[in-house]
Amino acid sequence: MRVIIVGCGRVGALLATMLSTDGHEVAIVDRDPAAFKRLGGGFKGVAIEGNAFDRQVLMRAGIERADAFASVTAGDNTNYVLAAMARNRFQVPRVVTRIYDPLRADIYRRFGVETISSTVWGAYRIRELLTYSGLSRVLTVASGELEVVEAEVNALLAGHQVKDLTIPGETQVVAVIRGGAALIPITMTTLVKGDRLLIAVLASAMPRLETMLSP
Asked: Which residue, 193, 189, 145, 199, is CA-closest to 210?
């Protein structure tokens, strides 16, 4: 996959190195040549000095044949404009941008640009660590509004049914792992002690789920 990353800060440099190590063709753009010192030893891509708003700079990075584009500079507005330009003007199939401001992230997402809000994501993760209740996070969707968590069925939950852990529109058991095999449950599936549950839950409903799973 051919990937362009704009912004060689800590996130951009790590992302570029990871993708390059995975075997992807990566070009990273930054106005400050000193920023490229952050790139790890595994980076085998191309570092391009210049302003990403300059069409010629993007052309040098290979924007016309890019499969993916990520803007992770320090500016929310810059990131959004670059992402919108990559998607609308150059028709890059996969575009993601990092936005600090949660409100802006939500607005930009409604405009059709996939956004990651590290502020929201980080806050939810810190809350999870501070209030750990036996739930393990498996996947975070969008900017942390939805998570998939894993929980073990204890003796008190055993015998209950999946419907007892379901809140329409808020929590849903999406898989049960039993004896090393996974199954997609129905509402009447009975829980067995030792089952591992994968549960999709809105961040706002996490306290209710924790209460339901609590002895």
From this structure: 199
pLDDT of residue 151: 87
Interatomic CA distance for residues 46 and 34, integer angstroms? 14
Selected residue with higher pLDDT from 124 and 112: 112
Residue 148 CB neighbours (<10 A): 17
pLDDT score of 18 more than 70: yes
DSSP the chain: -EEEEE--SHHHHHHHHHHHHTT-EEEEEES-GGGGGGS-TT--SEEEES-TTSHHHHHHHTGGG-SEEEE--S-HHHHHHHHHHHHHTS--SEEEEE-S-HHHHHHHHHTT-EEE-HHHHHHHHHHHHHT--S-EEEEEETTTTEEEEEEE--TTTTT-BGGGG-BTTTEEEEEEEETTEEE---TTPBP-TT-EEEEEEEGGGHHHHHHHH--
Residues of the chain with CATH 3.40.50.720: 2-116
Mean pLDDT on 69-91:
95
Specify the CATH number of the domain 127-213. Answer: 3.30.70.1450
191/31 Cα distance (integer angstroms): 56
Q: Are 28 and 8 in contact (CB under 8 A)?
A: yes
What architecture is domain 2-116?
A: 3-Layer(aba) Sandwich (3.40)
